[in-house]
Write a structure and sequence with these properties.
Blueprint: H1 6-16, E1 20-23, E2 26-29, H2 41-56, E3 65-73, E4 83-92, E5 96-105, E6 108-118, H3 142-148, H4 155-162, E7 167-171, E8 186-193, H5 201-211, E9 233-237, E10 239-244, E11 254-264, E12 267-276, E13 281-293
Helix pairs in contact: 2-5
Amino acid sequence: MAEPTPTELVAQLTTLLDVEEIDTDLYRGPRLPGGVGRVFGGQVIAQALQAAQRSVSGAEGGDKIAHSLHAYFMRPGDENHPIIYRIVRDFEGRSFATRRIIAMQKGRPILNMAASFQLPAEGLHHQDAMPDVPDPDALRSERELREQIRDQVPEKFRRFFLRARPIEIRPVNPRNWFAPDEIEPVQHSWFRVVAPLPDDLALHRAMLAYASDMTLLGTCLLPHGVSWMTGEVQTASLDHAIWLHEPFRFDEWLLYTTDSPWAGHARGFNRGKIYARDGRLVASVAQEGLIRLRNDRE
């Protein structure tokens, strides 16, 4: 079977995030074609954000734009079933609106999320400086790096590990998935979708939400020399928060800088900053995740 083109990959992701309105404040998120096992957490967050954005885009919500979301994962999503999103309109003010989103499968919630929207406004401004890192054009893609070690990948993981993806990641300091060193819990990666997107900035925000769940949780594993590929640790996202600061396009390069200030009690805390190529801080992210050792290693 021929590998999908970049345009086809991005079209598939766009379709995946195109939630269907099935009743007032009730949406259905499509399944990932060919998906097996547990649903990627970024997909649930992105579909929930799309449902919330669509509930705000009417006359009542006006031109309010998503500026933050806070989500808790409760159960793993199952790729065998679509996901239903129920919207609760908690507040509708002149400047702000809030939405509560419950993601459900087979009648049980798998994620609760709150999202806030604001009419654009001017105000005081400052931001952290963008880290001084190599330009993405000087780096190799994660897929190229994975292809180099294809023979080291266990057969059961190889198709997933090497598949073409709609989001290209170019790590500044690539790590060895199978023999990771114990290093400082900081990493930098450039990312973007692999083909142009339409001028629907709500879609760009949803795609960023989708991608923000990539590389983040692994940051808290860096000081411990373990990886999910080595089979030593069980990982899962527990919660996820995003603050959207500035407009951006996700078909242009963005720098994702992550760090982990703490881990303990089988949990790891991770933070992320997302910069546009021109140095603007466009989003911030935080997440706590499960990092449970599978053996007695300390």
